[in-house]
Amino acid sequence: MPLIEVRGLSASYGPIQAVREIDVDLAEGELVALLGANGAGKTTTLMSLAGLHSSRRGRISYDGADVSRFSAERLVRRGISLAPEGRRIFAKLTVAENLALGAAIHKGRQGRQQVADDRDELLELFPILRQRLHAQGGTLSGGEQQQLAIARALMSRPRVLLLDEPSLGLAPKLVQLIFTLIRRLRDERGLTLLLVEQNVRGALEVCDRAYVMRSGKIVLSGTADELRDRSEIERAYLGLSAVRSDAGPSSRDTTSA
Questions:
Q1: 212, 238 in Cβ contact below 8 A?
Q2: Residue 172's pLDDT band (boundaries 50, 70, 90)?
Q3: DSSP string, 73-133
Q4: Which residues fall within 8 angstroms of residue 158, CB to CB, at 6 or more apart?
Q5: Do residues 141 and 255 touch, judged by C-beta distance below 8 A?
Q6: What pLDDT does 251 receive?
Q7: Which of 96, 162, 172, 191 is most buried when burial is the number of CB atoms within 10 A of its CB?
Q8: What is the model's pTM?
Q9: DSSP readout, 18-59?
């Protein structure tokens, strides 16, 4: 049985239907990418899975239980955490304070000790955050903010991590760093990850499987190897700009380290 099983998921914004009866599965410990151009419905799908989009229909099962109507807070407590598009860190709070907010669901003396241990472990995984621990989030570079957003999501101790466009706006060397960190989260921590990306080549380098969305529908799925070898289909569904020859971002992604 998949750890997450989505059946017939639809989501809308008023009269506009952004996601149209899609089916998605994630096995435990699997890294799955959700690919597509702008407006394909990727972020709406992720927001629905995180309990942050209320206008949705269909069934979402997590670890065998129906969580279709769970709130975002309840899903976080059950083990599903989101690192949102655009990082959404608290710019006036320090790195340490941002991380503490990610662990807000853990309370009590034992919880506080575990939070401290979790933070130390994550600072080993994201060493730049240890160096900037007492700096305000708004003073961090784009790459540092993205690492903070991922680390903050991990502070809730999720089994499933939802990542929305983690490479967006980053310079090529930082894109490679972020994808390497994502692969380590699967390989070393055993996390189940759903990665929303427009950077097709970068995503297919690290994921096990991928779904391709267009106009709110799943139009293609397969293993990373299968999709990597079907460049003509990628072009048809994603556009030429999404399948550049390297793992770097598109020409608009210019944020430095």
A1: yes
A2: confident
A3: HHHHHHTEEEE-TT----TTSBHHHHHHHHTTT--HHHHHHHHHHHHHHHHHHSHHHHHTT
A4: 76, 79, 80, 81, 191
A5: yes
A6: 35
A7: 162
A8: 0.86
A9: EEEEEEEEE-TT-EEEEE--TTSSHHHHHHHHTT---SEEEE
